[in-house]
């Protein structure tokens, strides 16, 4: 793999920037969901369905990972954000629910194309301190995910939905530079070790269930917090800023988890982050007013803290194809969470969005038994 930088910016810096842009464009929807709910006269279940469609394409990340490893190069990592952007730009010219769903699906597929190869390149770019390196890469995405809803909410509130295309300008300006600097991967030979599906079944299922329930919690909070704030009389931009706080402050959890993992191990982070999240989620339905911002900020730290751990666990489980392992840990698991999101929306329609927030505690409790079934060390190779 070529790692020589073309400019003073490191290849890791280019990957972080690409992740920032891609995830900002792929996760802008919560910032405009209250507006869409009013404009399209929709209850919570179909609104959650739009979010689910946006995220559903991530289930294809294992396939994208296999193809990326075989193809090598950097095409998936640099063209994925372009496809993500195309779906966002299309939203500026349509108001049909089903057309919006199709455009969100395109954005989700672009997001799916980008992540596995970018994650694999990131890990290959360093031979030590994988936890910190992965956390730095993830920070770019988390900042993008945090600012995306706020930027979209501000654009729509001040200029209207037809100007959502403005979100694409940073990528258009920097894409040529980014394509030159992102390192190329060496194609993975087909005659390499076959994936041992039977051996990976138990830890793989545990990883998917744990990460899927975490994804459902993250998506539910990102979807329902702006709507909850809007129902309480708050503005569109204020509601979007709750998501920005949740995801943006969560960057500290992503970075801190990598450092703790390198020192104390993966399982320590998984248990600590999960138990802290369980406690904090239980306060979300009870807190009102300005206190909601510090609460969701701290919740973001704990809820996002386990992501770099599960990404590395996925690569360790599927060591024969690390990009596919990233796809399982991030994409397939996130897709499971996305599929379950409309059910949470249906529940919220019947009991109220504030009461429905209590379901988050059940998700965390259900995920805890699966921590023990996930490996915490790379597999030992036998000659």
Structure description:
The chain has 383 residues and is an all-alpha fold. Helices cover 73% and strands 0% of the residues. It has helices at residues 11-26, 33-39, 44-56, 61-71, 75-90, 97-124, 130-159, 169-181, 197-231, 236-264, 266-281, 292-304, 307-317, 322-351, 353-356, 359-367. Helix 9 runs parallel beside helix 14, helix 10 packs antiparallel against helix 11 and helix 11 (266-281) packs antiparallel against helix 16 (359-367). The longest helix is centred in the middle third of the chain and has 35 residues, at 197-231. The chain starts with 10 loop residues before the first helix and ends in a 16-residue tail after the last helix. The model is unreliable at 1-8 (pLDDT under 50). It is a multi-pass membrane protein. It is found in: Cell membrane. Residues 1-383 form the Major facilitator superfamily (MFS) profile domain.
Helix-strand blueprint:
Blueprint: H1 11-26, H2 33-39, H3 44-56, H4 61-71, H5 75-90, H6 97-124, H7 130-159, H8 169-181, H9 197-231, H10 236-264, H11 266-281, H12 292-304, H13 307-317, H14 322-351, H15 353-356, H16 359-367
Helix pairs in contact: 1-5, 1-6, 1-7, 1-8, 3-6, 3-14, 4-6, 4-14, 5-6, 5-8, 6-14, 7-10, 9-10, 9-13, 9-14, 9-16, 10-11, 10-12, 11-12, 11-16, 13-14
Strand content: under 5%
Helix-strand string: HHHHHHHHHHHHHHHH
| Number of domains as seen in the coordinates | 1
Shape summary: globular
Structural class: mainly alpha
Could you tell me the CATH topology label.
Answer: Growth Hormone, Chain: A
Give the total of beta strands: 0
Euclidean distance between termini CA atoms = 25 Å
Number of helices: 16
Taking Cα atoms only, what radius of gyration do you get, to the nearest Å?
A: 20 Å
Give the proportion of residues in helices. Answer: over 70%
| CATH-level-4 superfamily name | MFS general substrate transporter like domains
- Tell me which CATH architecture applies here: Up-down Bundle
Low-pLDDT residue spans: 1-8
CATH uppermost class? Mainly Alpha
- Describe the oligomeric state of these chains in a short phrase: single chain
Q: Give the mean pLDDT.
A: 83
Membrane topology: Multi-pass membrane protein
Main location: membrane
Pfam family, one: MFS_1
Organism: Sulfobacillus acidophilus
């Amino acid at each position: 793999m070529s790692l020589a930088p073309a400019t003073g910016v490191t290849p890791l810096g280019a990957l972080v920037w690409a992740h920032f842009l891609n995830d900002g464009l792929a996760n802008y929807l919560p910032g405009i969901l209250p507006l869409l709910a009013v404009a399209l006269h929709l209850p919570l279940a179909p609104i959650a369905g739009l979010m689910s469609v946006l995220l559903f394409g991530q289930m294809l990340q294992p396939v994208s990972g296999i193809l990326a490893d075989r193809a090598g190069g950097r095409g998936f990592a640099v063209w994925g954000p372009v496809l993500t952007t195309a779906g966002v730009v299309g939203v500026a010219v349509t108001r049909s629910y089903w057309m919006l769903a199709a455009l969100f699906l395109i954005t989700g597929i672009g997001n799916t194309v980008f992540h596995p190869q970018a994650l694999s390149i990131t890990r290959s770019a360093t031979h030590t301190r994988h936890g910190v390196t992965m956390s730095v890469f993830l920070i770019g995405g988390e900042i993008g995910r945090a600012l995306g809803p706020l930027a979209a909410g501000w654009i729509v509130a001040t200029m209207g939905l037809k100007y959502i295309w403005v979100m694409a300008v940073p990528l258009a300006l920097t894409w040529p530079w980014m394509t030159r600097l992102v390192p190329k991967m060496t194609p993975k030979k087909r005659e390499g070790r076959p994936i041992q599906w039977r051996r990976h079944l138990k830890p793989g299922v545990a990883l998917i269930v744990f990460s899927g329930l975490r994804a459902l919690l993250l998506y539910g909070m990102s979807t329902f917090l702006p709507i909850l704030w809007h129902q309480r009389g708050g503005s569109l931009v204020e509601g979007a800023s709750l998501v920005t706080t949740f995801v943006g402050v969560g960057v500290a959890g992503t970075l801190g988890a990598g450092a703790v993992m390198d020192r104390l191990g993966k399982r320590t982070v998984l248990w600590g982050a999960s138990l802290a999240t369980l406690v904090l989620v239980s306060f979300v339905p009870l807190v009102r007013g300005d206190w909601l911002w510090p609460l969701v900020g701290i919740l973001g730290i704990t809820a996002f803290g386990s992501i770099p751990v599960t990404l590395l666990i996925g690569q360790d489980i599927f060591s024969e194809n690390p990009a596919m392992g990233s796809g399982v840990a991030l994409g397939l698991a996130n897709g499971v969470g996305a599929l379950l999101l409309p059910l949470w929306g249906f529940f919220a329609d019947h009991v109220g969005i504030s009461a429905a927030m209590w379901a988050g505690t059940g998700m965390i409790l259900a995920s805890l038994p699966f921590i023990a079934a996930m490996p915490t060390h790379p597999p030992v190779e036998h000659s």
